[in-house]
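Need a sequence for this fold. Nothing fancy.
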C-alpha cells in the first residue's frame, strides 16, 4: 500500500505539500448491523511545508472507546519523533492498567516491576547529573518549575560515587536542594557535604 500526495491537480506535476496537509489515512470499519462504521484509523499529516531538505510529518492513531460511537485520538508520533498519549492508560505487563502508567510482573525469577533511568554518558564527571525525577504543578500560584525533584549526581571526578539530592520549592521559585544522601550514606539537610 503506497499513499502519495502532491498539491497539484495535474497528473505528473509536483507541488509541495503544506503544513497540516493530510498525506494519507487508513480507516478500519465494521458493520453495526445496518451499515459500515469507522472504529479506528491511522493518518499521516505534514507538519511543515515540504521542500528538498525538510519533510516534517506526524502520525495520528485514533480508536473508538467502549460504549462510544466516535473516534478519540489516543496516540500521536509528532514531527520530533516524540510519542504523545492523548487518552487512556499505558500498561506494561498488564492489559488493564488503572493509572497513567502501570508496570506489572509476577516477581518470580527476578522479574520485579522496575523503572530504570539509564544515563548513556560514557565519561561521567564531578557533579554530572545521572538522572532526575521532576514534579510540575499547573496551579497559577505555583509557577516554579519543577516544584520538586529527586536527582542522582556524580560526587567524584571519575563518576564512581553517586549522591541522591532531594529538592523542593515554593511560590514562583523552582525547587532547589534541601536534603542530600551521599554515596557513603551520610545525610545532609541544609548542607551539601554532610559528615554524619
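Here you go.
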Amino acid at each position: 500500500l503506497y499513499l502519495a500526495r502532491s498539491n497539484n491537480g495535474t497528473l505528473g506535476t509536483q507541488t509541495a505539500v503544506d503544513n497540516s496537509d493530510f498525506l494519507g489515512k487508513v480507516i478500519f470499519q465494521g458493520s453495526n448491523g445496518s451499515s459500515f462504521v469507522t472504529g479506528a484509523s491511522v493518518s499521516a499529516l505534514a507538519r511543515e511545508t515540504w521542500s528538498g531538505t525538510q519533510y516534517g510529518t506526524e502520525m495520528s492513531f485514533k480508536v473508538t472507546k467502549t460504549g462510544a460511537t466516535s473516534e478519540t485520538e489516543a496516540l500521536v508520533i509528532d514531527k520530533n519523533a516524540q510519542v504523545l498519549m492523548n487518552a487512556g492508560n499505558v500498561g506494561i505487563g498488564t492489559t488493564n492498567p488503572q493509572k497513567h502508567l502501570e508496570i506489572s510482573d509476577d516477581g518470580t525469577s527476578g522479574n520485579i516491576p522496575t523503572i530504570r533511568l539509564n544515563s548513556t554518558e560514557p565519561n561521567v564527571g564531578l557533579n554530572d547529573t545521572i538522572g532526575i525525577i521532576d514534579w510540575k504543578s499547573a496551579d497559577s500560584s505555583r509557577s516554579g518549575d519543577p516544584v520538586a525533584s529527586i536527582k542522582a549526581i556524580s560526587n567524584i571526578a571519575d563518576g564512581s560515587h553517586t549522591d541522591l539530592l532531594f529538592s523542593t520549592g515554593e511560590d514562583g521559585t523552582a525547587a532547589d536542594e534541601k536534603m542530600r544522601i551521599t554515596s557513603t550514606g551520610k545525610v545532609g539537610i541544609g548542607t551539601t557535604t554532610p559528615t554524619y
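For context: The chain has a mean pLDDT of 91.
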